[in-house]
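Notes to self after the Tuesday call (sharing in case useful).
The group wants a holo model before anyone commits to mutagenesis around the pocket. I volunteered. Ligand is magnesium ion. Logging inputs and output together so the record is complete.
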Amino acid sequence: MRVSKVLVVDDRSTAREGIASLLPACDVAGCLRADANTTLRMAIANGAPFDVVLLDASLAPTAAFVRELVTVGGGVRVLLSTDGEEGAALAVQIGASDVVARPFVAAELAFRVERAASQDLRADKRRPRKSDVLIGTGAWIKELYDRIAMVAATDATVAIFGESGTGKELVARTIHNSSRRHDAPFVVVNCAAIPEALLEDELFGHVRGAFTDATRDRDGLLVAAHTGTLFLDEIGEMPLALQAKLLRVLQSQEFRRIGDDADRQVDVRIITATNRDLDQLVASGAFRQDLFYRINVFPLHLPPLRARPEDVPLLVHHFINKYRVRLGKAIGGIAPAALARFVAYEFPGNVRELENKVHQAMVVAAGPMIVDADVQLPAPGSATSGRSRVDISRPFREVKQEAIDAFEVAYLTDLLRAHHGNLAQAARAAGMDRKNLWSLVERHAIDRTKFKK
Ligand SMILES: Nc1ncnc2c1ncn2[C@@H]1O[C@H](COP(=O)(O)OP(=O)(O)O)[C@@H](O)[C@H]1O
Ligand SMILES: [Mg+2]
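Result:
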């Protein structure tokens, strides 16, 4: 195998020797100052000499610096070394390909250096597949896409937080599909769904004879995910004993099958998800603090759907398109009154619940559109109690229009019910022009006939 050349940029004069002793298989050179000129001169000396630059985070390198280094260094990979937990976020920001924590663990350092050295720069750019499209509007989804793009280009561990149904798994898949690992497996392990006693076997596998039923060697899901991504869903439910083993995987990509007497190595990118408050689990002793730091290097927080009602219409149309094909029903859209009910509802089950409700409505819909009567959602409260909070992150005009629509639907529904669907009578009682009332009822697709006596 080719010897990897490593340039250590660190302002501790002993750093190079220390690292060289940890990387006996590499050719290690040192550079004291993070001054761009010095570093670049060293990086380009004798052609393109370095495979990996190990850069000290405390020197506060910038994205421009890293870009220059990569360009001038002919595709040199930058590995950020850091004392703190915030290192991974910085790595992603500045475009470093990976991060390694100090104090160094020899196996981990060697592994990350070799992996960085063998990374193919050209494979990084890839667009998500169509089925993975994350629907949303406004600033949060733009930021989410930016953060996904940043982290997909690296092997950093990602921790996704959010209530059930907010899209955690979809985000994890999107990261995998946008990463250089996209052709390798994406393996999902739900730590809450697998009985505690079986989880270790599922993840790590066993050797023959490890326990009574172990009649042959069996690889676990970690091996199944080799060169790909392992998605650990509900990580907060992982038993403490397994947490220690997972920590080891994260530190050195090493693990041991049950009953084995030798370690094995894997190359997996780990993405975790949870709807629990990990800080609290750490405080109560149910989750290891060191593991928490390891997985929390690049957190992504997905907001609940009720905090972004502006996404509801888009998602409804997205799922109408999805199920139109599956159900083979020519449903072209949704009436405004029916949509208004979706927008007004709080969706405790988030996008998953919305998806189910759209599906249900399409199953029962008889016409070419989803109408009010097709929608099975708890009745919205009155116009004033329908939504408790006002979302000031969105344009006034939009929010106001939604409030008006919801009010109009509620008012007209009650009005028509009181007058048994009789328009003339209802208009008189409400002090409205009959034609205006008629056009509003039409606009909201309110079915007058259901109020007839
Ligand atoms: N922003 C989104 N755009 C499109 N579909 C979404 C979005 N968020 C969630 N979904 C869909 O909602 C369902 C639940 O999402 P999932 O990722 O399983 O949630 P979680 O893992 O957080 O429980 C899936 O069918 C997913 O495709
Ligand atoms: Mg899930």
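Two things stood out.
The pocket of adenosine-5'-diphosphate (ligand 1) is lined by residues 134-136, 162, 164-170, 318, 351-352, 355 (CB under 6 Å).
The longest helix spans residues 396-418.
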